[in-house]
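[Solved] Which block belongs to which protein?

Original post:
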Amino acid sequence: MASASRVPICRTVSEPITALEAALERIPDAAGRASAVRIKGGVASLVLEVGGLSAAGRTALEQSVREALEAVEGVSEVRIVLTAEKTERTIIAVGSGKGGVGKSTVAANLAVALARAGRRVGLVDADIYGPSQPRIMGNSAKPELAGKQIVPTSSFGVRMLSIGQLVAPGSALAWRGPMAASALGQLIEGDWGDTEILVVDLPPGTGDIQLSLIQKWKPAGAVIVSTPQDLALIDATRAIDLFRKMDVPLLGLVENMSGYACPHCGEVSDPFGSGGAEAAAKVMAIPFLGRVPLTLTLRRASDEGVPPAAGESEEAEVFAAIARRLLEGLSG
């Protein structure tokens, strides 16, 4: 008698779970993502791992699973816990000692070049007071929210977030340091999905934003942008010194506006000098990543929101070469 009484109890526990698992198997995207499937008192519960999915993908998968389980006989309520394994991202800080050296242009084209090299790349415009990436990347689309996270928009294979996408063009941001740092956090902690490299375009100088990024999110390395003349290199040295004092590896120095080829006669001149950044990199014992020429094509493309790195021009190859050297430095 005792043995007979145990049989129906086993069946009432196992059969509903089997039905739940069968329902999950009919959802292709749920394969391998569902665990801890349970049912008790008509309440079905499970854990759904949604790492690597976009906000829309997570919502769609959760809805599909919920509808499938609600259709199972005996289920009156479905409870789903979403989890996501934290993606390990490599943060690359792009900085400069002073403004006007083309740091943002280099950051944008570097991000595009890395994406074309097969990496999943995100671009954060951390120049809170003077965001320029929406213009350079040709993307002023307002990001959406997924819960408390901002969802990046995409341009040229690069996911992007900028405060310039969230405020009216030309608006002055009269924010104190803590407010700017909070805004940086919203951008860095956005819904980056499976992004593996995050290029952060920092404001010029060595202020609150730089310190907040280093202290809270510790970049894997920094790239410094400078023009060849002595004054810019003096300021670049200060930026390099900050990263060194904060134990952030220096991935290299980029010499921007290096040589100008006349579009009419082809003669090359050096309005900002030549080779200064490479010489400085050697003295400071940091890698020299390459030179970016001062060209009319580069200026026009940046103003028109079409980064040259996305094309097949000579400038595109320049940025591709810088991206290759950067990746070699990261892997080394």
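(Second protein starts here: sequence line, then its structure tokens.)
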Amino acid sequence: MNLISNIWNHPKTSAAGLLIALASVAGVLSQQGVSLGKLGSGSVVSLIGALATALLGLLAKDPETATQPVSRQASQQAKLGAWAMIALLLPLPWMQGCSAKTVAQDIVNWTPALQSAVATVDSTAALLAPADAPVFIAATVGFDAASNLLAAQAKAYLANPNAGVLAQLQTGVVTLQQQVNVATLQAVHIVNPASQQHAMAAIQGVGTIVSAILSLVASVSSKAALAKMASETGVKLSALEPYLNRSLSARIVAAHYNEPVELARVQVARAEWAQMQAGF
């Protein structure tokens, strides 16, 4: 009943959420070559995505044009459609590079943030309760070596974006992603609430950046390579879903790309969904 009540009380937000889902699913299906049949010169999937985007545009009315004052909550709801439409019309900054060189540069641009996040992990142990620090250190012990190797592979790919270097980069990002996933599940078992909060935030800071790099690598990888990468992941993203702080991820992405958090939130959700669909 609460679900029905929420939909009834917030129809615009509910409609925008449904349209975002439709457009996101249509985008992923198109990337996978699924058309659901032809319609004129296009496909049914592309039509669904276009209609969803167009309807989001109709929802995106500027509240400042209203003749009566509106509340802050109403203003935020009115802006939701606009940000959703922007997120769907623009390519994801870390999922649809124009070329291998562009993607390689974007990956390299993420590496200082990655190494900073790993440095935060290294300093977080001092903030934990004495009994929790050894567990956290053991869970994150491989972050430094894996992140340094990934940064070096990213620079090598930027200098020479060929298939051999890309294969190394694919292995490197999956290796670090798995270390982050395992560490997240281990940090869940930290009993002290304050320690767990510090530990999870530090690990997810690394995880958010690794997820962005993984999506970039995926955007220049073949379907066969993606399948191989996914097959090497023992701990899947779905296992982490209950513990993910998506607001934190959105803030990290927004700060990196200098964009509004509302836009980054939609982008993070789309990237996460695409990775799960790919088997990560």
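Accepted answer:
You had them paired correctly. Confirming on the second one: DSSP finds 13 helices and two strands in the chain.
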